[in-house]
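Input/output pair, single chain:
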Amino acid sequence: MSTDPAPHNVEFPSAGATAHGYLALPPAGHGPGVIVIQEWWGLTDHIKDITDRLARDGFVALAPDLYGRTVAHDSAEALRMMNALPTAQGVEQLEGAVTYLLSREETRGDTAGAVGFCMGGGFVISLAAADERISAAVPFYGVNRDGVPDFSHLKAEILGHYGELDEGVPPSSLVPIEEAIREGGSGIVPTFHLYAGAGHAFFNDGRPEAYHAEAAELAWARTLDFLHAQLDPKA
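Output:
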């Protein structure tokens, strides 16, 4: 498998079909792997930018396209597309992406990280619960749509970022998730950060009405430190 240093679209087998994604490689050409999971809008330029940023910081970053190369243009369409993707189906697609990412010669290690936003934040939690190859999970303002997952096989350390003013994913929604993780028997204690003055989608700099620069910068710094510590401790 040849190394192409430029970010590019890729195809790979997943869930019995051909899946698509956006892959970005680090300057060194190799590094730990991280899956980047889209918001309900789809694989947008914002998600690609996050993937590029992770690559620049030393990670082999893959953003799988859960909507099959379709992007929503308004919230009604995004809601329809999200609801058409059951959690179990999305997790199956993401597991295929993890297999592909870990199979690439540029990827170091036998586990990967996962970072996701909004809908993707919920998928981060569900994927970490289902796939023991995920060792570092970073949900941004996301919880599972279908209730609390079974965390009995959880191997991932979890670092979450949530806005104190988020009405869609209020801080109180984290309580059952944290309790289930603690009771799952893994011994893992999640870390959930709350950001004062920030609401939903505070990390999305493409949405001026939601973006909170101070919260976004702090959450990103914490995310990079966490991923390096979990996936690349010698960095």
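Strands lie at 8-14, 17-24, 31-37, 60-64, 107-117, 134-140, 157-163, 191-195. The chain has six helices and eight strands.
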